[in-house]
Amino acid sequence: MTGADAEVRFYQVTARRTYSQQKLPPDLFTRTGPYRLVLITCAGPYDRASGDYEKNLVLYAAPTGAPIT
Fold it and tell me: Which burial class, exposed, middle or buried, applies to 54 when counting CB atoms under 10 A from its CB (0-12, 13-18, 19+)?
């Protein structure tokens, strides 16, 4: 993946978590700290009445090795 700094990094998934849609950790959206990749998608049962899934699946990934310039 190419970051905002134009460096190419490869990532490895380090954690998989499931959260309620109303309780996603606020630190998922931070722009500070070490490089990481966070993928968020829908999970759990689909509620046709509300048009929503019950949960979110979150994958955390960290860069593997030095960036490629």
Answer: middle
Residue with tokens 């009445």: 49
- In this prediction, residue 69 has a pLDDT band, given cuts at 50, 70 and 90, of low
- Name the one residue in this structure whose structure tokens are 């970051």: 3
Above 90 in pLDDT, residue 66?
no
Contact 60, 7 (CB under 8 A): no
What does pTM read for this prediction? 0.76
Q: Give the model's pLDDT for residue 12.
A: 93
Say how far apart CA 69 and CA 29 lie, in whole Å.
26
Q: Tell me how far apart the alpha carbons of residues 7 and 69 are, in angstroms, rounded to a whole number.
A: 5
